[in-house]
Amino acid sequence: MQGRIVKGIAGFYYVEVKGPLVYECKAKGIFRKDGIKPIVGDNVEIEIIDEDQRQGNLVKILPRTNTLIRPPVANVDQAVILFAIVKPNPNYNLLDKFLITMRQASLPVIICFNKQDIATGEEQQELYDAYEKCGYQVLFISVKEERGLDELKTLLKGKTSTLAGPSGVGKSSLLNKLVPDASMQTGELSKKIDRGKNTTRHSELFLVKELTDDEEETFIIDTPGFTSLELRDVNTDSLMNYYPEFVEYEPECRFGGCSHIAEPDCGVKNAVKEGKVSKVRYDNYKVIYSELKGMRPDYSKGKKR
To answer: Which domains can be identified in the chain, with CATH numbers?
Structure first.
Protein backbone atom coordinates (compact mmCIF):
# COMPACT_ATOMS: atom_id res chain seq x y z
CA MET A 1 0.00 0.00 0.00
CA GLN A 2 1.32 3.45 -0.90
CA GLY A 3 0.92 6.66 1.06
CA ARG A 4 2.65 9.83 2.19
CA ILE A 5 4.36 10.58 5.49
CA VAL A 6 2.44 13.38 7.21
CA LYS A 7 4.35 13.36 10.50
CA GLY A 8 7.26 11.65 12.20
CA ILE A 9 7.76 11.49 15.98
CA ALA A 10 10.07 9.38 18.15
CA GLY A 11 10.69 6.73 15.50
CA PHE A 12 7.06 6.47 14.43
CA TYR A 13 5.92 7.65 11.02
CA TYR A 14 2.31 8.53 10.33
CA VAL A 15 1.41 7.62 6.77
CA GLU A 16 -1.77 8.84 5.10
CA VAL A 17 -3.21 6.67 2.35
CA LYS A 18 -6.19 7.24 0.12
CA GLY A 19 -9.35 7.16 2.16
CA PRO A 20 -8.03 9.08 3.94
CA LEU A 21 -6.63 6.76 6.59
CA VAL A 22 -3.51 7.29 8.70
CA TYR A 23 -1.32 4.35 9.72
CA GLU A 24 1.25 4.46 12.51
CA CYS A 25 4.37 2.83 11.09
CA LYS A 26 7.85 1.83 12.18
CA ALA A 27 10.66 2.00 9.64
CA LYS A 28 12.44 -1.19 8.62
CA GLY A 29 16.04 -1.57 9.78
CA ILE A 30 17.26 -1.46 6.19
CA PHE A 31 16.82 2.32 6.19
CA ARG A 32 19.32 2.74 9.04
CA LYS A 33 21.67 0.32 7.31
CA ASP A 34 21.53 2.37 4.10
CA GLY A 35 21.80 5.69 5.96
CA ILE A 36 18.35 6.81 4.82
CA LYS A 37 15.97 8.62 7.15
CA PRO A 38 12.27 8.92 6.22
CA ILE A 39 11.00 12.51 6.40
CA VAL A 40 7.70 14.34 6.12
CA GLY A 41 6.53 14.54 2.53
CA ASP A 42 8.05 11.21 1.51
CA ASN A 43 5.93 8.98 -0.69
CA VAL A 44 6.30 5.48 0.72
CA GLU A 45 5.14 1.90 0.60
CA ILE A 46 3.88 0.28 3.78
CA GLU A 47 2.81 -3.21 4.85
CA ILE A 48 -0.16 -3.51 7.18
CA ILE A 49 0.38 -5.25 10.53
CA ASP A 50 -2.93 -4.48 12.25
CA GLU A 51 -5.76 -3.01 10.21
CA ASP A 52 -8.00 -2.36 13.22
CA GLN A 53 -5.28 -0.42 15.05
CA ARG A 54 -4.03 1.19 11.84
CA GLN A 55 -0.48 -0.04 12.37
CA GLY A 56 2.11 -1.00 9.79
CA ASN A 57 5.73 -1.06 8.71
CA LEU A 58 7.37 1.38 6.36
CA VAL A 59 9.11 -0.79 3.77
CA LYS A 60 10.13 1.51 0.91
CA ILE A 61 10.75 5.20 0.24
CA LEU A 62 9.79 6.12 -3.30
CA PRO A 63 12.10 8.41 -5.34
CA ARG A 64 12.12 12.02 -4.13
CA THR A 65 11.78 15.02 -6.42
CA ASN A 66 13.74 17.09 -3.90
CA THR A 67 14.95 17.07 -0.29
CA LEU A 68 15.49 19.89 2.17
CA ILE A 69 17.74 19.58 5.20
CA ARG A 70 16.39 22.58 7.12
CA PRO A 71 13.50 22.18 7.44
CA PRO A 72 13.72 18.40 6.79
CA VAL A 73 10.98 17.77 4.22
CA ALA A 74 10.70 16.11 0.82
CA ASN A 75 8.77 16.48 -2.42
CA VAL A 76 7.76 20.12 -2.09
CA ASP A 77 6.96 22.60 -4.87
CA GLN A 78 7.83 25.82 -3.09
CA ALA A 79 8.76 27.38 0.25
CA VAL A 80 6.80 30.04 2.10
CA ILE A 81 9.06 31.89 4.52
CA LEU A 82 7.25 33.95 7.13
CA PHE A 83 8.79 36.85 9.03
CA ALA A 84 7.14 39.72 10.88
CA ILE A 85 7.60 43.28 9.67
CA VAL A 86 7.83 44.38 13.31
CA LYS A 87 7.50 42.79 16.77
CA PRO A 88 9.83 41.03 16.27
CA ASN A 89 11.83 42.99 13.71
CA PRO A 90 13.14 40.73 10.94
CA ASN A 91 16.61 39.26 11.25
CA TYR A 92 17.83 39.88 7.72
CA ASN A 93 20.86 37.66 8.23
CA LEU A 94 18.66 34.68 9.04
CA LEU A 95 16.32 35.46 6.14
CA ASP A 96 19.18 35.65 3.64
CA LYS A 97 20.59 32.33 4.84
CA PHE A 98 17.22 30.71 4.31
CA LEU A 99 17.02 32.15 0.81
CA ILE A 100 20.50 30.82 0.04
CA THR A 101 19.44 27.36 1.23
CA MET A 102 16.34 27.41 -0.97
CA ARG A 103 18.35 28.61 -3.97
CA GLN A 104 20.70 25.67 -3.47
CA ALA A 105 17.66 23.40 -3.71
CA SER A 106 16.34 25.29 -6.78
CA LEU A 107 13.11 25.81 -4.86
CA PRO A 108 10.90 28.87 -5.51
CA VAL A 109 10.32 31.06 -2.46
CA ILE A 110 7.42 33.27 -1.41
CA ILE A 111 8.50 35.74 1.28
CA CYS A 112 5.58 36.70 3.52
CA PHE A 113 5.94 39.59 5.93
CA ASN A 114 3.23 39.46 8.60
CA LYS A 115 1.78 42.09 10.96
CA GLN A 116 1.05 44.62 8.25
CA ASP A 117 -1.64 46.03 10.55
CA ILE A 118 0.96 47.45 12.98
CA ALA A 119 3.73 48.39 10.53
CA THR A 120 4.38 51.69 8.79
CA GLY A 121 4.55 52.18 5.05
CA GLU A 122 8.25 53.03 5.35
CA GLU A 123 8.99 49.76 7.12
CA GLN A 124 7.21 47.82 4.39
CA GLN A 125 8.95 49.74 1.61
CA GLU A 126 12.38 48.94 3.05
CA LEU A 127 11.60 45.23 2.93
CA TYR A 128 10.11 45.49 -0.56
CA ASP A 129 13.16 47.29 -1.90
CA ALA A 130 15.51 44.75 -0.34
CA TYR A 131 13.85 41.58 -1.62
CA GLU A 132 11.30 42.06 -4.39
CA LYS A 133 13.73 43.98 -6.55
CA CYS A 134 16.19 41.08 -6.51
CA GLY A 135 13.69 38.62 -7.89
CA TYR A 136 11.72 37.24 -4.94
CA GLN A 137 7.94 37.10 -4.61
CA VAL A 138 7.12 39.35 -1.64
CA LEU A 139 3.74 39.53 0.10
CA PHE A 140 2.70 41.75 2.97
CA ILE A 141 -0.04 40.20 5.06
CA SER A 142 -1.89 40.59 8.32
CA VAL A 143 -3.02 37.25 9.65
CA LYS A 144 -4.92 39.03 12.43
CA GLU A 145 -6.95 41.12 9.99
CA GLU A 146 -6.80 38.56 7.16
CA ARG A 147 -5.17 41.00 4.76
CA GLY A 148 -3.35 39.49 1.80
CA LEU A 149 -4.47 35.94 2.52
CA ASP A 150 -6.48 35.59 -0.70
CA GLU A 151 -3.37 36.39 -2.75
CA LEU A 152 -1.35 33.89 -0.73
CA LYS A 153 -3.98 31.19 -1.20
CA THR A 154 -3.82 31.72 -4.97
CA LEU A 155 -0.07 31.06 -4.87
CA LEU A 156 -0.55 27.95 -2.70
CA LYS A 157 -3.32 26.29 -4.71
CA GLY A 158 -2.46 22.95 -6.26
CA LYS A 159 1.01 22.78 -4.71
CA THR A 160 2.83 21.35 -1.73
CA SER A 161 4.41 24.23 0.18
CA THR A 162 6.69 24.13 3.20
CA LEU A 163 5.97 26.88 5.72
CA ALA A 164 9.01 28.05 7.66
CA GLY A 165 10.13 30.95 9.81
CA PRO A 166 11.35 31.97 13.25
CA SER A 167 9.18 31.75 16.35
CA GLY A 168 6.81 34.58 17.24
CA VAL A 169 6.01 35.79 13.73
CA GLY A 170 2.49 34.32 13.47
CA LYS A 171 3.22 31.02 11.76
CA SER A 172 0.77 29.01 13.86
CA SER A 173 -1.90 31.67 13.40
CA LEU A 174 -1.43 31.57 9.64
CA LEU A 175 -1.63 27.78 9.60
CA ASN A 176 -4.88 27.89 11.55
CA LYS A 177 -6.33 30.29 8.97
CA LEU A 178 -5.34 27.96 6.14
CA VAL A 179 -6.18 24.70 7.93
CA PRO A 180 -8.84 25.46 10.58
CA ASP A 181 -8.78 21.91 11.99
CA ALA A 182 -4.96 21.74 12.23
CA SER A 183 -4.98 22.11 16.02
CA MET A 184 -7.61 19.41 16.33
CA GLN A 185 -5.63 17.01 14.12
CA THR A 186 -2.45 17.65 16.06
CA GLY A 187 -4.27 17.23 19.36
CA GLU A 188 -5.68 13.86 18.33
CA LEU A 189 -2.26 12.63 17.26
CA SER A 190 -0.61 13.94 20.43
CA LYS A 191 -3.16 12.12 22.55
CA LYS A 192 -2.48 8.89 20.69
CA ILE A 193 1.27 9.05 21.28
CA ASP A 194 0.83 10.40 24.84
CA ARG A 195 2.50 13.74 24.25
CA GLY A 196 1.43 17.30 24.84
CA LYS A 197 0.12 19.27 21.90
CA ASN A 198 2.84 21.31 20.24
CA THR A 199 2.46 22.40 16.64
CA THR A 200 6.03 23.67 16.32
CA ARG A 201 8.15 20.79 17.58
CA HIS A 202 7.83 18.57 14.52
CA SER A 203 7.10 19.02 10.84
CA GLU A 204 3.60 18.02 9.77
CA LEU A 205 1.82 17.91 6.42
CA PHE A 206 -1.76 19.16 6.14
CA LEU A 207 -4.30 19.07 3.35
CA VAL A 208 -5.69 22.56 2.70
CA LYS A 209 -9.29 21.55 2.08
CA GLU A 210 -10.44 25.01 1.00
CA LEU A 211 -7.95 24.94 -1.88
CA THR A 212 -8.48 21.30 -2.86
CA ASP A 213 -10.88 20.07 -5.52
CA ASP A 214 -11.34 17.09 -7.83
CA GLU A 215 -8.56 18.31 -10.13
CA GLU A 216 -5.79 19.20 -7.67
CA GLU A 217 -4.83 18.92 -4.02
CA THR A 218 -3.13 21.61 -1.96
CA PHE A 219 -0.82 20.74 0.93
CA ILE A 220 1.15 22.80 3.42
CA ILE A 221 3.90 21.51 5.70
CA ASP A 222 4.19 23.22 9.06
CA THR A 223 7.76 23.17 10.40
CA PRO A 224 9.38 24.11 13.72
CA GLY A 225 10.48 27.70 14.22
CA PHE A 226 14.22 28.36 14.05
CA THR A 227 16.58 31.04 15.35
CA SER A 228 19.75 30.06 13.49
CA LEU A 229 20.73 28.41 10.25
CA GLU A 230 24.04 26.95 9.18
CA LEU A 231 24.96 27.17 5.52
CA ARG A 232 26.23 24.06 3.76
CA ASP A 233 28.44 23.88 0.69
CA VAL A 234 28.91 27.65 0.51
CA ASN A 235 32.29 29.41 0.69
CA THR A 236 33.62 32.93 0.18
CA ASP A 237 34.11 32.29 -3.53
CA SER A 238 30.58 31.02 -4.17
CA LEU A 239 28.60 33.29 -1.83
CA MET A 240 28.12 36.03 -4.42
CA ASN A 241 26.30 33.54 -6.66
CA TYR A 242 23.41 33.61 -4.20
CA TYR A 243 22.93 37.35 -4.59
CA PRO A 244 21.45 37.59 -8.10
CA GLU A 245 21.18 41.39 -7.94
CA PHE A 246 24.99 41.60 -8.05
CA VAL A 247 25.28 40.06 -11.52
CA GLU A 248 24.34 43.19 -13.47
CA TYR A 249 27.12 45.23 -11.89
CA GLU A 250 29.97 42.71 -11.73
CA PRO A 251 31.26 43.59 -15.25
CA GLU A 252 32.02 47.08 -13.86
CA CYS A 253 34.47 45.66 -11.28
CA ARG A 254 38.12 46.52 -12.02
CA PHE A 255 39.36 43.06 -10.97
CA GLY A 256 38.21 39.70 -12.23
CA GLY A 257 36.95 37.51 -9.41
CA CYS A 258 36.16 40.58 -7.30
CA SER A 259 34.74 39.58 -3.90
CA HIS A 260 32.92 42.93 -3.57
CA ILE A 261 34.43 43.39 -0.13
CA ALA A 262 37.74 45.30 -0.03
CA GLU A 263 38.63 45.78 -3.70
CA PRO A 264 38.68 49.32 -5.17
CA ASP A 265 36.54 50.26 -8.17
CA CYS A 266 33.98 47.58 -7.40
CA GLY A 267 30.83 47.76 -9.53
CA VAL A 268 28.67 46.17 -6.82
CA LYS A 269 29.85 48.55 -4.09
CA ASN A 270 29.25 51.50 -6.42
CA ALA A 271 25.73 50.21 -7.12
CA VAL A 272 25.08 50.06 -3.38
CA LYS A 273 26.21 53.68 -2.98
CA GLU A 274 23.92 54.72 -5.83
CA GLY A 275 20.94 52.87 -4.32
CA LYS A 276 20.74 50.37 -7.17
CA VAL A 277 21.52 47.43 -4.86
CA SER A 278 19.93 47.19 -1.41
CA LYS A 279 22.30 48.21 1.38
CA VAL A 280 20.47 45.78 3.66
CA ARG A 281 21.28 42.88 1.37
CA TYR A 282 24.86 44.03 0.80
CA ASP A 283 25.51 44.42 4.53
CA ASN A 284 24.21 40.90 5.05
CA TYR A 285 26.48 39.66 2.29
CA LYS A 286 29.47 41.12 4.16
CA VAL A 287 28.36 39.56 7.46
CA ILE A 288 27.96 36.11 5.92
CA TYR A 289 31.23 36.51 4.03
CA SER A 290 32.96 37.24 7.35
CA GLU A 291 31.37 34.17 8.93
CA LEU A 292 32.55 31.97 6.10
CA LYS A 293 36.03 33.41 6.33
CA GLY A 294 36.14 32.63 10.03
CA MET A 295 36.03 36.23 11.19
CA ARG A 296 33.88 37.52 14.02
CA PRO A 297 30.83 39.04 12.28
CA ASP A 298 29.03 42.20 13.32
CA TYR A 299 25.45 40.95 13.53
CA SER A 300 24.11 44.44 14.18
CA LYS A 301 24.44 45.05 10.44
CA GLY A 302 22.17 42.09 9.74
CA LYS A 303 19.29 43.19 11.90
CA LYS A 304 16.71 45.89 11.61
CA ARG A 305 16.70 48.28 14.54
So the answer is: 2-63 (2.40.50.140), 68-222 (3.40.50.300), 239-302 (1.10.40.50)
